[in-house]
Amino acid sequence: MAGQVSHELELNVPASQAWELYGTVALATLVEKGLPNLIQKIDLVEGDGGVGTVLQLRFAPGVPGKTDYKEKFTKIDNEKRIKEVEVVEGGYLDIGFTLYRTRIEVIEKENDSSVVKTTIEYELKEEAAANASLVSAETYAKIGEIAKNYLYKNKAS
């Protein structure tokens, strides 16, 4: 079984400025500080923010349905402003998913604005099909709002 969910967020900053945040590990630092009720800690396990970088996500105690996992940056295209991250250990892989990939695209719009499109692609074993209901873009909507506030406060003039 396979599927996907998406979320889009319009930003009043140029795509280049949004990509400076979304295309790097800086986003992880912002998420760790901005979602303390969800994320307890994000550790850089390996890498420098490029392809092959591995992050360990530790969820806050009592967060239902979330278990710690490692994710790996599998694609970073600075020209097209696309980053893909896959869960490589724990989390969704422990409950029947065979693929859990997040693709972030920063799309240039007119008048120095941009759109961040986040798409979660997943595959899971048939016997775990009910777990598809755990896939949600809600967390990325929250991350988007934190990123939006950060970018507006730090907007280049």
TrEMBL record:
Which GO terms are recorded in the biological process aspect for this UniProt protein?
Answer: abscisic acid-activated signaling pathway; alkaloid metabolic process; defense response
Please list the residue ranges annotated as the Bet v I/Major latex protein domain.
1-149
- UniProt-listed CDD domains: Bet_v1-like
Q: Which SUPFAM superfamilies match?
A: Bet v1-like
The reply to whether Hydrolase figures as a keyword in the UniProt entry is no
On whether Ligase is a keyword of this UniProt record, the answer is no
What's this protein's family per the entry?
Belongs to the BetVI family.
What's this protein's name? S-norcoclaurine synthase-like
Which InterPro entries does the annotation name? Bet_v_I/MLP (IPR000916), Plant_def-hormone_signal (IPR050279), START-like_dom_sf (IPR023393)
Which Pfam families would you find in this protein's record?
Bet_v_1
Q: What GO annotations for molecular function exist for this entry?
A: abscisic acid binding; protein phosphatase inhibitor activity; signaling receptor activity
Cellular component (GO) terms are:
cytoplasm; nucleus
Keyword annotations = Alkaloid metabolism
Q: Transmembrane stretches, by residue range? A: none
